[in-house]
Amino acid sequence: MSVVHLNGDYLAKDEAKVSVDERGFLFADGVYEVTPAYGGRLFRWPQHLERIQKGLAALRIDFDAAALEGVKYELLARNGLDKASAAYVYVQVTRGAAPRMHAFPDPPVAPGVYAFANPYHRPSTERWEQGFRAVTVPDQRWARADIKAIALLPNVMAQQAAVDAGVSNAIFVRDGMAMEGAHNNLFVVAGGVLATAPKSNYILHGVTRDFVIGLAGDLGIPVEERAIPLPELFAADEVFFTGTTTEIKPAVAVDGRQIGDGRPGPVARRLFAAFIEAVGG
Ligand code: PDD
Asked: Hey, whose CA ends up nearest to atom 6 of ligand 1?
């Protein structure tokens, strides 16, 4: 039985209970973060912290997210993941529990904090080398996809569309542009140049995305942050996803159309090798 954190307590998951007045439950009124841990060390925690702080500020939830670092380490330890080669910690902060009214509770109530830790299972080399397939879906999200809100219904529907199509990833398309995956960011490679959608209110500003752009810089691979028209996605030499629970995953087919030669390409391979080295193997 895993141990989770709920509002200051560490509990067996079975014993963790939330109020039916919890606004996360009623309104999806909250934000979350998923932070990787390699060898028991949180990876890029300051970047994840900054993002959740921005989200909390945007939603006007008064909570000191810096305190979550200790919660995350405690959860890794209590779940035997403090030496795990790869794990991740999920945390969400909601506006708290109050009788259902759309506007914020007045006076404010204590935010609701829930967190858990899980091992991360990287695909085997053989699986990775086969590549992954994806489908495109219309991007029906709200205009603040940069806030990592727990309101993920469009992402849930998109990922289910992928599952229904027998593939592993969905790509959101807005106004003819490939934006990002249902739970990861998206890169294309054409003529040796990497491209990914620019940071805007229409995508999540992925921590892994930034890290991979940095790795590309180190490797001398040019990167363009710009809109990616759908025809460019289909015509790309390579397509890959990045994210905390994705790391780097190559897409070898989109909507049934083969990408490049139908195998993970050299740029994704080089970046993934550099990524694995950076996170300690
Ligand atoms: N998702 N885009 C979306 C829509 C995401 O939900 C995520 C992460 C990313 C990648 O961000 P990062 O590199 O910071 O993990 C991009 C998490 C892992 C999730 O929802 O489980």
From this structure: 183
The kind and range of the H/E element at 217 are helix 207-218
**Quick check: is 148 catalytic?**
yes
Report the C-alpha gap between 149 and 94 in whole angstroms.
Answer: 9
Ligand 1 pocket mutation, candidates 171, 174, 244, 249, criterion most atoms within 8 A of CB: 244
H-helix or E-strand spanning residue 94? strand 86-94
| Residues lining ligand 1, Cβ inside 6 A | 34, 155, 180, 183-185, 204, 206-209, 242-245
- Centre of ligand 1 to C-alpha 243, Å, is 5
Instruction: Please tell me the residue having the least CA distance from ligand 1 atom 11.
Output: 206
Measured in Å, residue 62 CA sits from the centre of ligand 1 at 23
What is the distance in A from the centroid of ligand 1 to the CA of 33?
8
Q: Give the tens place of pLDDT for each residue, 185-200.
A: 999 999 999 999 999 9
Q: Is 167 helix (H, G, I), strand (E, B) or coil?
A: coil
Residue 20's identity, in one-letter code, is: V
Report d(CA 37, CA 58) in Å as an integer: 27
pLDDT tens per residue across span 109-155: 999 999 999 999 999 999 999 999 999 999 999 999 999 999 999 99
Q: Which of 40, 159, 38, 149 is nearest to 95 (CA)?
A: 149
The first and second tokens of residue 112, run together, are: 């609701």
User: pLDDT for 54-81, tens place per residue?
Assistant: 999 999 999 999 999 999 999 999 999 9
Q: Which domains does the chain have, with CATH numbers?
A: 3-119 (3.30.470.10), 125-279 (3.20.10.10)
Nearest CA-CA partner of 216 in 163, 268, 161, 255: 268
DSSP per-residue letters across 101-146: -SSPPSS--PPEEEEEEEE--PPPHHHHHH-EEEEEEE----S-TT
